[in-house]
Amino acid sequence: MILRYVPYGRATLLFVIFVPSLFAVAADSQTDGAEDWLERMVMASKAISYEGTFVYHAGGSLQSMKVVNTVDSHGDQQRMYSLNGESRQVTRDGEEVTVTDPAFPAHASGFYDAPFPLALSRDFAKLHENYQLLVGDEGRIAGRQTRQIVVRARDGYRYGYQLWLDQETALLLRSDLLDTNARPLEQLMFTNLSFLPRDGCSAAAPVPRELVSSTRAVQPRRKEIVDQSRWNWQIRELPPGFVVTSRFTQDSVGGMDGTETALVSDGLATISVYVGRQQRRDDALQGLARFGAVNAFGIVEGDLQMLVVGDVPDTTVEQVARAVQVNRE
Amino acid sequence: MRRNSGEQISALVDDELAEAELELVLRRLTADADVRGTWQRYHLANEALRNGLSRSVDLTFADKVSARVAAESEHQAPAVAPAWGRPARGLAVAASVLVVFLTGALLIPDEAGDDSQFAGVEATAPPEATANTRVAEAPPIVRDRWQPDSSQKVYPYLANHSQLATSGTFPAVLPYVRMIGYETPR
């Protein structure tokens, strides 16, 4: 009787050994494919000239925007502006970013003068610790064939993404930011897209007239914190998977004097931690607020304001804010 | 060629809408619940036909927008509008979007039921010089004390965060989109 079961036992053994391996191979190939797609996506935005219109939905707001991305021998430039609602524009020329907003001329833009340690295209290993990457189905958006890429958060400290990339170029055509229950918090989708000849697109979309006369300010460069911070603070314990990637000072952000900022990242999501002295006491911000996909949590500690802002769940920004430790002497 | 609203929405979904008509259609889309419903139906039908329905599609998004507009007009307009000095704001197209965003961002409880918001608070006196190292402890979240200018105060931080986030996240375009997308009271 026992011998009669041997074949089944062997079959079972073979099944136990090989089938999971096959699934593992399949999963790896899915993941590897996802990495390739994401890397191509990162490169595409810096290598392809295009213009398009997309719809952006977040926090109950629906807006349409125009984007013009140009790549030439000097680098890549991008201009994006709203087509409805408030007139606002963001331009990026290499490392310089300028926000043009007639209503807020004072805080309008900045340089990026230091690379961040966690550059997506070079650190997929870090990404895998916190997210599962999968290749999804084919689709069609803005008249283009797409491939869906799923970036699934491994825990509740971060959000996930579903991305739809152009099959041919890997440009991002649709992005859904998903909350911890896989419900969309923020959606972006192109409704049309056209590719531009290299070096030949400066006149493709003229700057809206109402933006021409608005103030174009440049924010002071930030300085890396080398030794001791002015406010003598640290972040005691971060949520799993998050690390401090840089700390630096900014002359002023909002109503905060001597703003010191720490950037926290898990390889994908970014959290900004601001610590400084409020110029006016009634400017202090306390508690939790949500702005579309971005949450913010403020704490007032004596005369210091701690403010944590991030595209992460509310519990994560709150945990980071409560982990800020001020050393008073 | 002048087309009716349904044809224009269909053209938008099919990526066949002329550039000249885009602004008008999007304005209608923002202001008119029927048009939003049409857009949603066409879009979903289009997606279902082509790709099968995505599990991530927000089927109730148009309803949520409408509900928030309604909620705003019932509960918030009397208090908010005078404070901003724009009583007729809720009637304007752009302002509708603004109010929807603000109510969504600051006034309406999120889906998890958390209705906490920023509130302006008095900063307390500096702690004594002899205080030792200690962890910043947050006081209880202040509820039902929303002040209209809080979102204006926090906007610079949101914009700054978006700028900083562009170097460390993907899709790299999203932080820029958010910079434009943040609605702010005037």
Report what the structure shows.
The complex is a heterodimer of chains A (329) and B (186). Chain A is of the alpha+beta class and 329 residues long. Chain A contains four helices and 20 strands. Chain A has helices at 2-47, 124-130, 209-212, 314-322, and strands spanning 50-58, 61-72, 75-82, 89-93, 96-100, 109-111, 131-141, 144-153, 160-166, 172-178, 184-195, 223-224, 233-235, 243-253, 256-265, 270-278, 285-291, 294-301, 304-310, 324-326. An eleven-stranded antiparallel sheet of chain A has the order 6-5-4-3-2-1-11-10-9-8-7. Chain A has a seven-stranded antiparallel sheet with strand order 12-14-15-16-19-18-17, covered by helices on one side. Chain A has a two-stranded antiparallel ribbon with strand order 13-20. In chain A, a hairpin with a 2-residue loop joins strand 18 and strand 19. The model of chain A is unreliable at 1-9, 12-18, 20-29, 105-121 and 200-220 (pLDDT under 50). Chain B has 186 residues and is mainly α. Chain B has helices at 5-13, 19-31, 33-50, 61-84, 93-107, 150-165, 173-181; strands spanning 119-120, 134-135. At the A-B interface, helix 1, strand 1, strand 2, strand 3 and strand 4 of A face helix 2, helix 3, helix 4, helix 5 and strand 1 of B. Strand 17 (285-291) of chain A pairs antiparallel with strand 1 (119-120) of chain B.
Give a quick rundown of the structure.
Chain A is α+β, with helices and mostly antiparallel strands and 329 residues long.
Question: How does the SSE layout of this entry go?
Answer:
The complex is a heterodimer of chains A (329) and B (186).
Chain A: H1 2-47, E1 50-58, E2 61-72, E3 75-82, E4 89-93, E5 96-100, E6 109-111, H2 124-130, E7 131-141, E8 144-153, E9 160-166, E10 172-178, E11 184-195, H3 209-212, E12 223-224, E13 233-235, E14 243-253, E15 256-265, E16 270-278, E17 285-291, E18 294-301, E19 304-310, H4 314-322, E20 324-326
Antiparallel strand pairs in A: 1-2, 1-11, 2-3, 3-4, 4-5, 5-6, 7-8, 8-9, 9-10, 10-11, 12-14, 13-20, 14-15, 15-16, 16-19, 17-18, 18-19
Chain B: H1 5-13, H2 19-31, H3 33-50, H4 61-84, H5 93-107, E1 119-120, E2 134-135, H6 150-165, H7 173-181
